[in-house]
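FW: tagging you since you asked about this chain on Friday. Here's the raw sequence from the shared folder, copied in full. Didn't touch anything.
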Amino acid sequence: MELDKRGADLLFQVLTEREERASVAIASNDAFSGWTRTFTEPRLCAAIVDRLTFGGNIIETGTDSYRLAHTTAAHR
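HL: got it, structure written out here
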């Protein structure tokens, strides 16, 4: 899903205002390297990733999607 420039700017603003004041949880099926498809402005994408990862904890749960496997099996 591509986020337009205005939406990406607003998200960056929210993350900046919450930085060091409150927790933020983000879930993504994509690695950070794939976020450039969502945040098409490279500098803004890098800034968002920087805000999220500075002093944060990254929890990787794997790459297998239960929903995708369930849907694929149901269609067979």
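FW: The radius of gyration is 15 Å.
HL: agreed, and The mean pLDDT is 87.
FW: great, closing this out.
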